[in-house]
Amino acid sequence: MSDGPLRVGVNLLWLVPGVVGGSEEYTVRLLHGLADLAPEDLAVELFALDDLRRAHPHLVERLPTTTIGLRGRAKALRVAAETTWLAAQVRRRGLDVVHHPGGVVPLLTGGAATVLTVHDLQPLDHPENFSRTKVTYLRAALPRSVRVADVVTTPSHAAARRVGERLGVPAARLHPVLHGLEPEAFAAVDPAEVDRVRAARGLAPRWILYPVITYPHKNHRVLVEAFARLAPAHPDVDLVLAGGEGPAESAVREAVAASGVADRIHRTGRVPRSDLDALLAGADVVAFPSRYEGFGVGALEAMAAGVPVVAADATALPEVVGDAGTLVGPDDGPGWVAALSRLLDDAALRAEAGAAGRRRAATFTNEAGARALASAYRAAARPGAPADPGPSGAAG
Questions:
Q1: Three-class HEC string of 231-290
Q2: Would 6-180+365-381 and 184-361 be classified into the same CATH topology?
Q3: Any stretches that span the bilayer, and where are they (predicted)?
Q4: Angle between helices 333-344 and 347-361 in degrees, nearest 10
Q5: Domain boundary assignment for the chain
Q6: Homologous superfamily, domain 6-180+365-381
Q7: Cβ neighbours of residue 193 closer than 8 Å, sequence gap 6 or more
Q8: What is the pTM of this model?
Q9: How far apart are CA 339 and CA 241, in angstroms?
Q10: How do residues 77-128 score in pLDDT, each as one tens digit?
């Protein structure tokens, strides 16, 4: 290791823009945070697909980037490139640390110290939600990866605890690096834009929002059934299910069709970010009944927007929401009806909950996440060195 800055490479060959979900947003936000932080003892460079230049041009402008001309969906070639092309780049450039944010460490690493990000263990904890091929692969790859990694980062304290319990990783090697938000996440949306989106999508004056892809663990059914029960008493309220189509799409549509209030449930699919911000700003409540989250950034974004949150009392969501929202068992149907109705019926309570959410969200900063990640890089390169004393987000 040289006496100069630690040379850190970040493996983004797994990052297929628009395909890998929340892990893309988490990783890109953290890297922007590192660029903002610009620690003098770290020299960070990225190794990625050409697609990164198109999808995240500002990131490529801010951090040195080397790309390889592979199509994002050519998965076998991408995996091979991690073991061959990337390992060669690591050796050639004399990198001290390589960060693998995609959840798996390649078979060949090039000899540098290794930081691995494990977003969650859902494929191991709930294999029924994934293909047999993926589960078989990860049952072998995840334990091997955490064994060879010098440091394992996770997006929450809850995820860190689960990785320690399930895969036997010592606490000393686990570094929670929490999601953070940029200051612009707290900016108010123009009410005229909210009105435009409401009219364009044919929404009632008020709505409950759930903005996630239709994965099985997102538990849309409990929300649809709860809405069907509270809808008669709230004729001016709709339910908006925003987000792309996932493996549970047909089951969600069946639940909507059977609800008896299908005309008041809007399945929008994936929407532009500007429309999503308007839907969020105009919502009376954001519901988040997901059974399993490595973090739950949708709940954090809702709190940042000052919208009351009702979330499942499961995995990382209590850590994110804290005492600023309402927690309900993920399968407690009557509890969801009661919690949502209480907020819909009380404007003062909504205002109080929204203000509490803003205060809570302000403790999750991108700067804190970047500092925690920089500390993880130092720990991997210099075992036994003291960690950065700065904050790493809200405590779990």
A1: HHHCCCEEEEEECCCCCCHHHHHHHHHCCCCHHHEEEEECCCHHHHHHHHHHCCEEEECC
A2: yes
A3: none
A4: 100
A5: 6-180+365-381, 184-361
A6: Glycogen Phosphorylase B; (3.40.50.2000)
A7: 274, 278
A8: 0.90
A9: 18
A10: 888 999 999 999 999 999 999 999 999 999 999 999 999 999 999 999 999 9
